[in-house]
Input
Amino acid sequence: MRRVEFLSEDKKLVGVFHPAGKRESACVITCHGLDSYKDSEKYIEIAKRFSSDFSVFRFDFRGCGESEGDKIKDLSNRIEDLRAAINLIKNQSSVDANRIGLFGSSMGGYLSILIAAEEEVEAIVTWSAPYRLAMRDLRSDARDVIQDINCPIMIIHGDKDEIVPVSHARELYDRADEPKELKIIDGADHRFMDLSLRDKAIDISLEWFKRYL
Output
């Protein structure tokens, strides 16, 4: 794996690139949630599991982990951070620029939906994603744009999510176009803290990317 520094607007962001070991592989970009970061146990495990089949890029949004900037409630800048990450990965010689997937958890899933309505990506997986965030400058409703996504989307949600009601997943699924799938995991909370249920969600996510990416 390789540590990468790149710019989003005037902020230095930090990511870790896990090459798949073959030229021009597909790449999954992971998008963490509001209070998470690229080096959490969940994202390290996802990178470990996925990198047998895909390159993986996990990065810190501004103000999180190793990346510069203040973690503030005006979060539309995270859309620009994700756009910068996509552009960075599309220009890696070892990555097939036409085979980029997005994995997003919680707010990262919400952002993945918003950006995929504007940028070309090949597949999306979300965990615990809300359709709306009531933050000052980030009031876009993902239900209004999800039908504009031209790629397969897998929506995963725990039925014991204590932060984002499972109804958000059902409404996102209802608005999305095919190919799409909804997996409600019995007993899973917002962060998938139960490791057996997290493993199940990772398995589902990996199979989705293997099918479509």
In short: The longest strand covers residues 95-105.
